[in-house]
Amino acid sequence: MDCEAKLWLLVLFLFSSAMHCAIGEPQVPCIFIFGDSLSDNGNNNDLATDAKANYKPYGIDFPDGPTGRFTNGLTSVDIITDLLGFDHYIPPYANTKDSNIVEGVNYASGAAGIRNETGTHMGQDISMGLQLEHHKDIVSQISTKLGSDKVQQHLNKCLYYVNTGSNDYLNNYFLPQHYPTNGKYNTNQYAVALIQEHMTYLKALYELGARKFSLFGLSLIGCVPHGKNGSLCIEEQNTAALVFNNKLKAVVDRFNKELPDAKFIFINTAIITENSFKQDIKILTCCKVGSSGQCIPNEEPCLDRNLHPFFDEFHPSEMVNKVLANMAYDAPVPAFAYPMDISHLVKL
């Protein structure tokens, strides 16, 4: 094992050992989660799609086994939910029948993105636009429960966790055999188009009562193991992600000035995960994967899962999710979270 890989393992150990513990009442009354497979906890289970993870070995380290989470254990937003003091995880929109929706809902969907067509070559998914429609439904139900005079006051205090955009590249722009976007836009033009559409959804959430927004940037998507050999990263894809991130960070500045009483923060996922995503590809993945890059059903994964940055060829292991969640919640350096981290955002 080379020195860089050894450093990565040391960083993982230190961060996981120092994981925060929240005690007492939750720091926010509710969390609403928007995004893709990095946050999906079951919304895709009954959809006609290949993008689902409700089978072993996914969930091998999760108390309830496979749930639809695309990792071996907890997702980043699960861990942030713990850090915020909740004694349960936020339920998926697809399974809210017996849940307390007043405390939040998870709308995230594997393969989905900002654009409606993103990921559809794999089957059905729930795009950001459709996730917004689902949220309107939930807000209506919460209004019935709390009363129209109290619903806005309640929603103003919630955390809105938004982690989307990766699939608009990996399952759209960089798949020209399925989508025309690569031929219609250069990298900068595509980022502009994505951000403009994303802004309409964020503004719509604001109009529905959202005030505390945590916007996650893209990781180094050019270094995910799928389709790679050795330690190769595709710099064109990494550059595209960084262009998107810079524009998303600019949205934070703009909306903090333009939208009264709102507070937006940007989580710099690319910097936080840079060391883990640039290791030797041979040691990255843990489960045996098929042509899709997802785990083959019922195949035994590796035993040393804490030493593998990725569980399958697209999705981080729980250990990396712990690092990202802890750094997003309580950033040790300003570069990780702008203009503040989640722990400070929720206190506003």
From TrEMBL:
Gene3D superfamilies: SGNH hydrolase. It is found in: Secreted. CDD domains: SGNH_plant_lipase_like (cd01837). It holds the Pfam family Lipase_GDSL. One of its GO terms (biological process) is lipid catabolic process. GO terms for cellular component: extracellular region. PANTHER family: GDSL-LIKE LIPASE/ACYLHYDROLASE-RELATED, GDSL-LIKE LIPASE_ACYLHYDROLASE. This is GDSL esterase/lipase.
